Amino acid sequence: LAQGNVIAADEVAARHGLPLCVARVRLAQGDAPAALAVLERAIANAAERQWPDQRLRGLALQAVAHYAGGHGDAALDVLAQALGLAAAAGCVRLFVDEGAPMAALLAAAERRGVLPAYTRTLLAACAAEPGAATAAGQGSSQASLVDPLSERELEILALITQGLKNQEIADQLIVSVNTVLYHTKNIYGKLGVNKRALAIARARELQLI
């Protein structure tokens, strides 16, 4: 699958009865619902047979599958469950191996206060992976964001790109400066940036403006 041979990967996974591999193939084929159906059975089977490692890997992949299907809230719910099970053992690699989608989910989980110390450790490990910077920049629309920008946040982002200062934005939208600052902080968090210039660059990359 890593070599791009989806057909061969599908045959191997089916022949050897590897449900997580089957799910990965379905994701590679763009069929998130099929992947989720496979994972639901695999996770239930792992729990019944008391295979904690298999169950945890299944949950991590299930979070990614929900993300691929555009269900951000469901992805974060499953990820929170996986993090809760993995934190005591300090598991890192199984999350890092899921690549850019998992990094995006972890960033959203950290913003929501889900096991923040552990989540930050995982984010640092993801960032240290070769090619992480390139992977993090992938995505062509707001659909690639775990937490999409609200209508108000998009309004403020558009004004930021026009070079308006906080007070000017507040005056134009007839809100307080504190309200502008609140929304700006949320925008930065969702875009994964910490300053205006980076927010503008990321917004253009995602074709939000």
For the record, the count of structural domains works out to 2
What is the CATH class designation of the largest domain? Answer: Mainly Alpha
Main sheet makeup: none
Distance N to C terminus: 35 Å
Query: Helix count, per DSSP?
Result: 13
Gyration radius from CA atoms, angstroms = 19 Å
Task: Indicate the mean pLDDT.
Answer: 84
CATH fold assignment of the largest domain: Serine Threonine Protein Phosphatase 5, Tetratricopeptide repeat
Number of strands: 0
- The CATH architecture of the largest domain is Alpha Horseshoe
Q: What structural class results from the helix and strand content?
A: mainly alpha
Give the uncertain stretches in residue-range form: 1-5, 133-140
Beta content comes to under 5%
Rough outline: elongated
The percent of residues in helical segments reads over 70%
Write down the secondary-structure element order.
HHHHHHHHHHHHH
What does this molecule look like?
With about 210 residues, this protein is mainly alpha-helical. The protein has 2 domains: about 5-135, Serine Threonine Protein Phosphatase 5, Tetratricopeptide repeat (Alpha Horseshoe); about 140-205, Arc Repressor Mutant, subunit A, CATH 1.10.10. The chain is built from 13 helices and no strands. The protein has helices spanning about 5-15, 20-30, 30-50, 50-70, 70-85, 95, 100-110, 115-125, 130-135, 150-160, 165-175, 175-190, 195-205. The longest helix is centred in the N-terminal third of the chain and has 17 residues, at about 30-50. It is elongated. Mean pLDDT is about 85; it is low at about 1-5 and about 135-140.
